[in-house]
Amino acid sequence: MEERIAQVIVVGAGPVGLSTAIELGLRGISVLVIEKQERAGWHPRAKTTHVRTVEHMRRWGIVDRFRELAPLPPDFPPDLLFKTRLFGYELARFENAFFTSRERDERYSEHAQWIPQYKVEQVLREKVLSLPNVTLRQGAEFASLKQDGDGVSVEIRAIASGATERLACDYLIGADGVGSSVRRALGIEMKGERDLGDFVNVIARCPQLSREQPEPRGFVYWIVNPQSPGAIGQMDVDDIWAFISALPRGAKLDEAQVRERIDAAVGRPVECDILAIDYWTASRASAESYGNGRVFLAGDACHVHPPFGGYGMNMGIADAVDIGWKLAAVLQGWGGAPLLSAYEAERRPVHDAVMDEAVRNMALQSSQLLHEKLEENSAEGAEVRRRMGAAILQNKAAEFHTLGIVLGVNYSGSPVVAADGTQPPPLTTAYVPSAHPGCLAPHTWLDDGSSLYDHFGAGFTLLLTGPEADDDEVFRLQEAFADRNIPLRTIAPQSPRLRELYLAPLVLIRPDQHVAWRGDGRGVDFKAVAARVVGG
Alpha helix (H) ranges present in 85-199? Predict the structure, then answer.
């Protein structure tokens, strides 16, 4: 007999699977997460948590714990440097790289964070374990599935014993990475470019580097020399450092060669305890479909791209938020089936744009910045370094100052967004806040010091931007949403910037904080608006 112990089963307990469980769990949905691995070890995977992801953590109530686990002290410079070697010549510097500066910014409520992925997973896992309606089962793997119009039957297998059991759920989410078993069970293929370049990641404990750091400091150093082109940076406390280096196609290194590369990156012999060596190949690929029926794919299970720009984990967590609130709406009865179809309709264009940006970022790497006189202690060498630094600043700024790609992607044209005849700003690395329907709601700090986002509800939010809001139109919108049992909070914050940012007296904000509709309400069929934004 199949046991139904959760409304949603999530396969994979990485950042995407855990975030999906949190998004659903906080909305009252019962969730089972299964994970076959211990997810321990030193491999850092992602190291940059972008602004938007940290804003989700603020919304989930875990941002303080997240900051607590971050390894670098609050006064650590938020800068990324290009150098010939760690103790060599500086070529260029990007201040506030990835927007990691702790200074308050009007455009967002939380700054980005340099932190290894396993610590991100730790804080997400702690939140999952605190939710009474979410169960995490480790040591179990997905085996097969069957589905019909009423639900999904999932076979899972215990890793230790090999014993299998069948469980029933309403929906299944495959967040199980690029080799997704769920995707294979659906017969969905990944299409794209598989061999864009080979690399090696090395994690090492290097007390000497922690004691003798170069000045000025940065959280990442891109290294430009022929022996060890790549990057180096302190990854965690306890003297843990990460090294990344480009390799010839198909190459592997023995430990002696790894140590030679580390010494070449540093610029002097350094004592290190090698903890992990990880080879990987950069790819750009996406799934032919993001699911089938009652089964959906998220994160690397449906898209993968080079890590240049640090988008991967962050984009997967955004997937989790999108499918999470939509599934909750359907399961709670106020969302229609088209809302689920909108998951791929909204996310695929975002993925395509971000993957294109990552591939562009990859086009200029350390190995392509070499010059025979780059390290020469001469006037000619100094001129080479000056010209190289100028080229780096011109060509790599898009990778490290990329707020437009993080906050500017939008769902314009979505079937569950009510268009208003305007066009969104062009998608560039420079962020232009816009309340065009489909865009992320522009952020501002309110007069009392709170973030505007802190006042948004878990469901939809009706934002009144000033005294122009008509009470009768507000009532009509509220009534249309109440008739469909759609959760709606109405707020009227006191801020002179709201009307300037939103360009309308009434703005409807979705549960994921994107704009669903805006206007003055006059002559608007709010019943039609309510039906559209929830796929009714």
Answer: 117-130, 181-186
* DSSP-assigned letters across all residues of 327-355: HHHHHTTSS-HHHHHHHHHHHHHHHHHHH
Strands 295-297 and 171-174: parallel
CA distance 159 to 123: 25
Whether the Cβ atoms of residue 22 and residue 175 lie closer than 8 Å to each other: no
pLDDT tens-digit map of 203-221: 999 999 988 888 888 999 9
Domain architecture of the chain: domains with CATH: 3-69+113-191+286-360 (3.50.50.60), 408-533 (3.40.30.120)
DSSP code for 7: S
Helix (H), strand (E) at residue 378: none
In terms of phi and psi (left: phi > 0; alpha: psi -120 to 50; beta: otherwise), the region of 375 is alpha
The total of other beta-carbon atoms located within 10 Å of residue 227's CB is 12
Cβ-based burial of 462 (10 A; exposed 0-12, middle 13-18, buried ≥19): buried
| Contact (CB, 8 A) for 20 and 27 | no
| Per-residue tokens: 179 | 């080799």
pLDDT of residue 74: 81
CA gap 85, 385 in Å, rounded: 13
Q: Give the model confidence (pLDDT) of 272-285 as tens digits.
A: 999 999 899 999 99
Q: State whether residue 160 is helix, strand or coil.
A: coil
- Is 535 within 8 Å of 416 (Cβ atoms)? yes
CB 453 within 8 A of CB 463: no
What one-character DSSP code corresponds to residue 22?
H
**Unique residue bearing structure tokens 């009534």:** 479
> pTM for this structure?
0.95
Q: Would you state the pLDDT for residue 75?
A: 83
Q: Give, as one character, the DSSP assignment of residue 417.
A: S
Q: How far is it, in rounded angstroms, from Cα 138 to Cα 121?
A: 14
Edge to edge, the sheet with strand 515-519 lists 488-491, 460-464, 506-509, 515-519
Structure tokens at 71: 């390894």
